[in-house]
Design goal:
alpha/beta; Hypothetical Protein Aq_1857, Chain: A
């Protein structure tokens, strides 16, 4: 996950286990989208939905893609949390909310890699 000279590391990445679940969900449901929750529903767990089921809002920023799926977070929340980078993983046990992976008996979790002081810009705003 290291960036080369002059490159910025991705603001979001997924572990191999998370990518496997994302691939299965994509095969079953079609294109997906992720939203980093800020405290409602599943606390601060990322929520996985069919792409377009919850349109990105004007204050959402896209941090990147995981498994081909866009990953969004509210821009105010992103700034409040100190513009973190996320590594998305899976853990056993279904989520209590409406995220698609609950049907597989797992839930996505957000982890933070080591802080990176090289960030100087906000990811692109959602269209």
């Amino acid at each position: 996950m290291e960036a080369g000279p002059g490159e910025q590391r991705a603001a979001v990445a997924a572990t191999p286990a998370a990518r496997q679940v994302i691939n299965r969900l994509t095969d079953r449901h079609g294109p997906l989208a992720f939203f980093q929750s800020g405290g409602c529903c599943d606390g601060t767990s990322p929520i996985c939905l069919k792409d377009g089921e919850l349109p990105a809002g004007p204050n959402d920023v896209r941090l990147g893609h995981i498994g081909g799926a866009p990953f969004y977070i509210d821009s105010d929340q992103y700034q409040r949390w100190g513009t973190p980078r996320f590594v998305i993983d899976v853990a056993p046990g279904a989520a209590e909310g409406f995220s698609l992976e609950a049907l597989e008996g797992v839930h996505f979790v957000s982890r933070s890699p080591q802080p990176d002081d090289g960030r100087d810009s906000l990811p692109e705003r959602a269209p």
